[in-house]
Structures are given as structure tokens and as C-alpha cells.
Predict the 3D structure of the following.
Amino acid sequence: MDSKIKLWYTVFSPTKRVGLLILIKAHNLSTSLSSFESQRQQITASTLASSLFLSLGRLATTTSRLLRFLPEKFEDIFMIGA
């Protein structure tokens, strides 16, 4: 425990000590929850990025496969329309 907290703990009555300990525990809990929340957001962001990367890779693969099987005339039509 911090030295200030130890001093307060010895000065206050038992009832106030309990209240002080509850405040300390609540502060520690809120600190750990905010840390957990930031970790969760980082995990979510990396998961979304990897999903997007995989989806783009699949789209590129599918598109290249489709273009291989199209006759040259269809490719010319697509080039004219572009």
C-alpha cells in the first residue's frame, strides 16, 4: 500500500477504514476494467483488419479465376465499358 494510504488507515476510525478500502478496491477495479477495454478494442481492430485482408485476398483470387475462364470477346467488352 501507498504510504499516504497507510497513514489514513491508521488515523481513521474502523468504519472510515472500511469505506477507504472499498474506495481503493473500486479504483483498482475501474483501472483494470479500462485496461481490459483497451485490450479488447485492440483485439477487435486486429481481427477486423485480418478479416478484411482475407476477404480482399479471396475476392482477388475469385476475380482472377473468373477472368481466366472468360472468352477474349467478353474481356474486350469489359475493357470498352471501363
